[in-house]
């Protein structure tokens, strides 16, 4: 039985493919990534291109970020993903819109925003285990970044 060498070869090919710079694609609804553990994230996407800390306004708001390049970043607090960031150059649709869409297109896809903030709009999304929000950060006319996050943090 020669399966172990075959399994090792397949694992190496998968690792090389993950490290070759291929774009990581988030699910159509990135809220599905909320609540994943670091091990689950790495199992699903492989190791991130970069890992770094972001200091919040308060010490309890510090996050570890798994940056997968191509505009996809996952923010972890303690041992769970609590926020997903999608920004340029990410080109895949997310919840019916793409980064760079105008606010009117976002409203057509998601409905009227629940809140308008300085430089951003927010929508409440259906969440299974916790409240989920989407924040679209704008440059005035276009949405440049999407943050899908647990609203109970």
Give the arrangement of secondary structure elements.
Blueprint lengths: L2 H17 L18 H8 L4 E5 L8 E5 L4 E6 L2 E8 L15 H8 L4 E3 L2 E6 L6 E7 L4 E8 L3
Antiparallel strand pairs: 1-2, 2-3, 3-4, 4-8, 5-6, 6-7, 7-8
Overview of this structure, please?
By secondary structure, the chain is of the alpha+beta class. It has one domain: protein yfey like fold, CATH 2.60.460. It is about 20% helix and about 30% strand. Strands 1-2-3-4-8-7-6-5 form an eight-stranded antiparallel sheet, with helices on one face. Strand 2 and strand 3 form a beta hairpin. It is globular. The termini are far apart. The N terminus is likely disordered.
Oligomer description: single chain
Alpha carbon gap, first and last residue: 51 Å
**Helix and strand pattern:** HHEEEEHEEEE
| Largest sheet strand order | 1-2-3-4-8-7-6-5
Radius of gyration: 17 Å
**CATH class wording:** Mainly Beta
Number of strands: 8
Proportion of strand residues: 25-35%
Annotated CATH topology? protein yfey like fold
Q: Helical proportion?
A: 10-25%
For the sheet with most strands, the description reads:
8 strands, antiparallel
Helix segment tally: 3
- Could you name the ranges where pLDDT drops below 50 across 5 or more consecutive residues? 1-20
CATH architectural type: Sandwich
Number of separate structural domains: 1
Category by helix and strand content: alpha+beta
Q: What is the 3D form?
A: globular
Estimate the mean pLDDT confidence: 86
């Amino acid at each position: 039985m020669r399966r172990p060498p075959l399994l090792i070869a397949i694992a190496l090919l998968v690792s090389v493919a993950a490290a070759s710079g291929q774009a990581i694609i988030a699910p159509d609804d990135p809220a599905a990534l909320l609540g994943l553990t670091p091990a689950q994230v790495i199992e699903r996407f492989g190791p991130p291109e970069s890992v770094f800390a972001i200091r919040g306004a308060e010490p309890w708001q510090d996050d570890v970020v798994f940056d997968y390049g191509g505009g996809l970043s996952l923010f972890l607090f303690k041992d769970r993903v609590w926020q997903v960031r999608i920004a340029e150059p990410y080109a895949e649709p997310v919840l019916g819109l793409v980064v760079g869409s105008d606010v009117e297109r976002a409203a057509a896809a998601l409905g009227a925003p629940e809140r308008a903030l300085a430089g951003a709009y927010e929508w409440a999304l259906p969440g299974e285990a916790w409240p989920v929000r989407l924040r679209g950060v704008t440059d005035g006319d276009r949405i440049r970044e999407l943050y899908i996050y647990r609203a109970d943090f």
